[in-house]
Specification:
Elements (H helix, E strand, L loop, with lengths): L12 H28 L2 H7 L3 H29 L6 H22 L4 H18 L9 E6 L26 H11 L2 E5 L2 H11 L3 E6 L1 H11 L4 E5 L14 H11 L14
Parallel strand pairs: 1-2, 1-3, 3-4
Helix pairs in contact: 1-3, 1-4, 1-5, 4-5, 5-8, 6-9, 7-8
Length: 272
């Protein structure tokens, strides 16, 4: 078996992975303690109803705790090994729908910022997506970008059609439009989560490469499940939602990782 392709995430990936795994283990321990508490509190009352009820309830809670430990173990191994292990695809849903909210709460109790937890979640989600080895043709892949990448003084509206971009080079949209043409993939710019969801529903991609801040990426990954989303956080040298930047090399690296040639179609056809 070949190794899973990896996308460079900079020097920050290992700390993000440690944050995720640490919060994951702590959240699991707290969940098991909660199960134990739920069993212990009604213990005396259950005995009065039937002497074996505490044992039955204890066995049920123990089975649930074991299932959670096994699920977390598979999830952790998938991230650590970079391989698509059994049930890991279903466990991505568990991570997205259940564990992220729980881990955010545990992180807040420990003084860990929401953005740090979200960055960790995005990187781990990316590793799980890579482990599944999804491939898509140019027609099936969508580049989904935030409006804040556009130069703030630009007079041309690109949210309706990226082809309106005049490619002056003052913002990353020029480079993204060139990547869209080079690989023949669709490129869309959204002003917020509502428009982004509408774009996804209308275009029905098989895979999305999305750029946004931590909050929007995390919520977008949750909203799009089970559709795989590879997230790339933007850079904000001037603050949030204002002339943001993106690593174009990483976007292109993601494109070359996920794209397969489309038979009978040219990759030079723009699909903006």
């Amino acid at each position: 078996m070949t190794d899973t392709p990896t996308l460079s995430g900079g020097n920050s990936f290992k700390p993000q992975k440690r944050t995720f795994l640490g919060l994951l283990v702590l959240t699991t321990c707290l969940f098991i303690l909660l199960l134990a508490l739920l069993w212990y509190v009604p213990y005396v009352g259950l005995q009065t109803l039937h002497p074996r009820l505490p044992l039955i309830l204890g066995l049920l809670f123990a089975a649930l705790a074991l299932a959670v430990v096994v699920a977390v173990g598979i999830l952790g191994l998938t991230v650590a090994l970079g391989r698509d292990l059994p049930f890991s695809r279903s466990l991505r849903g568990l991570l997205i729908k259940l564990l992220l909210p729980l881990m955010s709460g545990v992180g807040q109790l420990l003084g860990i910022s929401k953005d740090r937890v979200r960055r960790s979640f995005i990187e781990i989600n990316n590793q799980l997506v890579l482990a599944q080895r999804p491939r898509a043709t140019a027609e099936q892949l969508l580049l989904l970008m935030p409006h804040c990448l556009q130069f703030h003084e630009c007079q041309f509206r690109i949210t309706g059609n990226v082809l309106h971009c005049k490619r002056c080079g003052k913002c990353p949209i020029k480079g993204l439009a060139e990547l869209s043409e080079k690989y023949g993939v669709g490129l869309a710019v959204a002003t917020g989560g509502t428009l982004a969801r509408r774009i996804v529903v209308e275009r029905r991609p098989r895979l999305i490469i999305a750029v946004a801040c931590e909050r929007d990426l995390a919520s977008g990954i949750q909203d799009s499940y089970p559709l795989p989303v590879f997230g790339i956080t933007n850079r904000r040298p001037f603050g949030p939602c204002y002339d943001t930047q993106v690593d174009l090399a990483r976007v292109e690296e993601a494109l070359t990782t996920f794209l397969v040639p489309s038979p009978g179609s040219s990759q030079e056809k723009p699909r903006s």
